[in-house]
Amino acid sequence: MGRHAHAVARRTRPAGFGTAGPGTGTVTRYVLRRLFQALLVLWAAYTATFALLYLLPSDPVSLMLRGGGEESFATPEQEAELRERWGFDQPPAIQYLTMLGLALTGDLGTSLTTGQPVVAALAEALPPTAQLAGAALVTAVLLGGGVAVAATYTRSPLLARFLTALPPVGVAMPTFWVGLVLVQVVSFQWGLLTALGGETSAAGLVLPALTLSLPVAALIAQVLSDGLRAELARPHTTTARAKGASRARVHLAHALSGGVLPTLTLVGVVTGELLAGAVVVETVFSRPGIGRITATAVEAQDLPLVQGVVLLAAVVFVLANLLVDLLLPLLDPRVRIGARRPGGAAA
Amino acid sequence: MTIPSTPSPSAPSDAPDAPDTADTPGTAVAPDTPLAAVRARPGAGLSAALGVFVLLAGWALWPSLFSAHDPLTGDTAQVLVPPGTEHWFGTDHLGRDLHSRVVHGASLTLRATFLAVGLGALAGGALGLVSGFAGGRTDGFLMRCVDVVQAVPGLLLSMAVITVLGFGTVNVAVAVGVSFVAAFARVTRAEVLRVSTATYVEAARAGGVRWGGVLVRHVLPNSAGPVLSLAAVQFGQAVLAVSALSFLGFGAAPPAPEWGSLVAEGRDYMVTAWWLTTLPGLVVVATVLSTHRISRAFDPETRRPV
Amino acid sequence: MTVVHRPTPPDSTAAAPDEADALLSVRDLRVDHATRSGRHRAVDGVDLDLFPGEVLALVGESGSGKSTTARAILGLSGRARVGGRILLHGSGGTRTDVLTATERRLRQVRGGEIGFVPQDPAAALNPVQRVGAQVAEAVRLHHRTDRAGARTNAVRLLGEAGLPDPARIALRLPHELSGGMRQRVLVAMALAGGPRLLVADEPTSALDATVQHRLLDHLDHLRSEQNLSMLLITHDLGVAADRAHRIAVMSAGRIVEQGPADAVLHRPGHTYTRALLEAAPGLDDPTGADAPRTDPNANDGPPLVRVENLIKDYGGPEPAVAGVDLTLERGRTYALVGESGSGKTTTARTVIGLTRPTSGSVLFDGVDLTSLRGSRLRRMRRRFQVVYQDPYASLDPRTGAAASVAEPLRAFRVGDRAWRRARAVELLDRVGLHASTADRRPGELSGGQLQRVAIARALALEPDLVVCDEPVSALDVRVQARILDLLAELQRDLGVAYLFISHDLAVVRRVAHRVGVMHRGRIVEEADVRTLFAAPEHEHTHELLAAVPGRARAHREIPV
């Protein structure tokens, strides 16, 4: 059947010298198109959260007044007045359009509990969380990458087995528990890095970042060692060995170059997850940040703030994936900017 | 140079097609059903995982059989007792037996887990099936929706749902289930697409089998494996998500002993009573690890020896 | 088989030279793989000698241990347990035992003394590296040179391997090259370290016949120019006959016969070799007397299938099928031959309504199939069935053999459940499968057995036409011969017509009554099978015929 048809009919296109980089114009156009797509995703996310948060049976005002399931102290008249003030007495379509219009001007409403503008609240909380998530991402890449390379490179079956068993354990540990156990052992027993109390110093960052990074590191280790194993089982690594390359060279120059690609895609996806993990980690370590805001907003059923956080997560996800897509052609020359990513995630 | 002593390969054999059997008997020597795999080769790891799973099921279904103490009433004379023969997991600040609380918590946490995975698998599976089978615009629209949902981290999505639904074990379960829909939809769709482009499906169609027959007899059975495997993986993820949300205080109201809230309660006594946080957490780890191991038995990809 | 006369190469009649003269001598090689069910001995006491300037072909079916032997010679057995001796005699009288050598020494041996040409060029190159860089790496591993020097060298090697415009090819990625070009890149890479010995593991079996032919010619040329020795591993006796001075036949981990090519081919001493030779279709002289094909079913009735001006355009640079006319008589076999991409499979799929043509008509027993849709087309499907190339893929992995065979009966509501089951077992028996296979699933059956199940399924509704799409090309040669015999027998007994798709002229000659040679979407020549082989007219037919392995020996001497 036409198995080789592609190979035969393949266009043979002259490649550039050295790099296969397309012109800067192509890249700009590509980035612009992707940014436009990102806006579409954000609009869809906005619409979805609006539908979820504002259209379900419970309306925001009664949610706010009965936050946490308590009885409302407000009289029906007061409730109605609140509804009018926030605009919740309008038909849903009008509410949606009004809010979307405001959102386009950068106004995501005001927090129902603090009265602070949502955007301002998020902006204030973002730096410590960004610091935490960044540190965690770097740790995860180093830790997970190291375990994966070591597990596939070692010749000792015992060490290989041990290293291979690590990722499932890492994925299985609840983040909140890891944080508490680390505090218990490192801070209380060893008296190091006393981290509770919301310090934002470098020492105070170590345990939270490590906690947040562990599940991500485990995922990276898993996906990267699978990728490496798959590449090492492919005939081209045998070819490299047969031409006289050393094991280390085959491992790092040949297996890694292809085996790292799924991991890169994974990193794009988990960057968004770090934000969710921050909710738990910031609670455990009593750190300020997006995570704390989210936990309290959910507790108080503060809809505009929750919506703001969800949108922020979507922005992070979309940007991280855009970055990965821009990096991918550098690592995989088969991928050309502007061509559809095989199996790509977000639109 | 001839070596005539070798037995002739065309030696008589009872099979009428004897020489055919000399060529490699297929790559798929692994048993065909997950259960067969479980029965055929329960290695030490898998046996342990199944053991943990059975024990947990026992805890969840008949908690009183597995615990010696009442989970809710404490003995004020026995406050913060370390683990020992009387109290396996020690006691908390109210003198309640931690082991009993963990055993009774299993029923709350695991029920929420089952509900979450069931909801995600059913809703996601149905969406994926429609998307993969209908193709075209329906597929395009559904998958764009899945893309958007997947742009939001699962735990955040669950929390958004909780914001609307309110607190409680069932609401947490529903929230976690909602966050699983996209993943199930994706995997089911991919499997349906993979199987429906397989040569044996075309062969069935060329043999005159109708689409309905192809769907029931070939597509569903052959795409079920990876979806089941995902369900088992998501079971572990659901335990983690449910207990994380419970830890954050969105689950059942105290004094109900959910695993996550048990750890949260122990936070205040970390310096003096390490067991209050450590032991319930270890139970969660054991649960997730065992479901992870069992899920591998369902997955034909990983059933090959490492 | 026909005896082929040809001058013998100089050293093939002489007594085997001394081991001392050998470049490589393998003694009592044993390789054990650890499997779940204990140790499996893949290679069991193999002795081989390879002399300077010689081509030794190691021939065997899949699973015979020939590739395992090749890997052992390169010291790439991985975790397998290896025993015996593999002595490599260096130019200065040095000797290296590959099995005991240090890793550092082995790295010099690999590429530097033994060049390796792997199977499957699509997978054997690093997909994310430019091919020039991959060849340059091989250069730098064995020669002291800087980056620029290695690059110049790589381009030179690519040119020597027969690639046009090597400087530009060097900048391509593997997926931008055709299969034949990739295999030439691998040859360049194997020669980069200046080895004296090439180990070529099925170097051409993934390629089209004409491409294979050209590549092997070029390899012969390079080999004689650089006075290399070659261990050629192949499943194809025809390739071995064309290219080797000596042949070693391997089965179940052992060498069952070894000797000068002529002796092995014409006076096979072992029953296994004889079985291989009988099954190898290409070795017969194609113009000679063929197995007589009687046509008891031939009749003068109207044709079963008439295809007129069939065009299928997928929107590529040229249509996949560009105006095909063909006529298939009842109870006869029409073979469509061509290389991959020639449009033969698309034509066949269109004939049975699996693909809709862009234009043209397909008259099946007078009914135009292209106008049928839905249930009317489905009802016609009773009368034409398919046998696919890969039996592993065409049978549902979860369905037992009898259930697969009964499926079309069930679809057309023929009989009740018990009757269908009985009929399925009967059909399995008809294709030579014991009743004990009835409930086995595809994973528990061999390739040949699976193809029998697929044939039984195709025959269940007693169709008038079966489309056989490369039905034997995924099978070992002896199994191929049996399946072809079975198809012929079934045709005699049941009067079924075959539309037979193949890239292999030798296979076609065994089964076809009429042959259409396809090239770039058109039938360039059509004739009765004997006419076509005796007096081919079109240039492309000539080329295809010349590429059939096993013919070269009849016409020319092997360059030494």
From TrEMBL, chain A:
Signal peptide: none annotated. Keywords: Cell membrane, Membrane, Transmembrane, Transmembrane helix, Transport. Its main location: membrane. The chain crosses the membrane at residues 35-56, 132-153, 165-190, 202-224, 259-285, 305-331. InterPro entries: BPD_transp_1_N, MetI-like, MetI-like_sf. Residues 1-20 are annotated as: Disordered. The keyword Ribosomal protein does not apply. SUPFAM superfamilies: MetI-like. It comes from Nocardiopsis coralli. This is ABC transporter permease.
TrEMBL record, chain B:
It is found in: Cell membrane. Residues 11-31 have a biased composition (Low complexity). The chain crosses the membrane at residues 44-62, 114-135, 155-184, 227-253, 273-294. Signal peptide: none annotated. It is a multi-pass membrane protein. Keywords: Cell membrane, Membrane, Transmembrane, Transmembrane helix, Transport. Residues 1-31 are annotated as: Disordered. SUPFAM superfamilies: MetI-like. Coiled coil: none annotated. InterPro entries: BP-dependent_transpt_permease, MetI-like, MetI-like_sf. Its main location: membrane. Residues 106-295 form the ABC transmembrane type-1 domain. The keyword Cell membrane applies. It comes from the Bacteria. Residues 1-10 have a biased composition (Pro residues). Belongs to the binding-protein-dependent transport system permease family. This is ABC transporter permease. It comes from Nocardiopsis coralli. The lineage of its organism: Bacteria, Bacillati, Actinomycetota, Actinomycetes, Streptosporangiales.
Automatic annotation (TrEMBL), chain C:
Residues 26-277, 305-545 form the ABC transporter domain. Its main location: membrane. SMART domains: AAA. InterPro entries: AAA+_ATPase (IPR003593), ABC_Ni/Peptide_Import (IPR050388), ABC_transporter-like_ATP-bd (IPR003439), ABC_transporter-like_CS (IPR017871), Oligopep_ABC_C (IPR013563), P-loop_NTPase (IPR027417). One of its GO terms (molecular function) is ATP binding. Keywords: ATP-binding, Cell membrane, Membrane, Nucleotide-binding, Transport. It is found in: Cell membrane. Residues 280-303 are annotated as: Disordered. It is a peripheral membrane protein. The keyword Transport applies. The keyword NAD does not apply. PANTHER family: DIPEPTIDE TRANSPORT ATP-BINDING PROTEIN DPPD, OLIGOPEPTIDE TRANSPORT ATP-BINDING PROTEIN APPD. Belongs to the ABC transporter superfamily. This is ABC transporter ATP-binding protein.
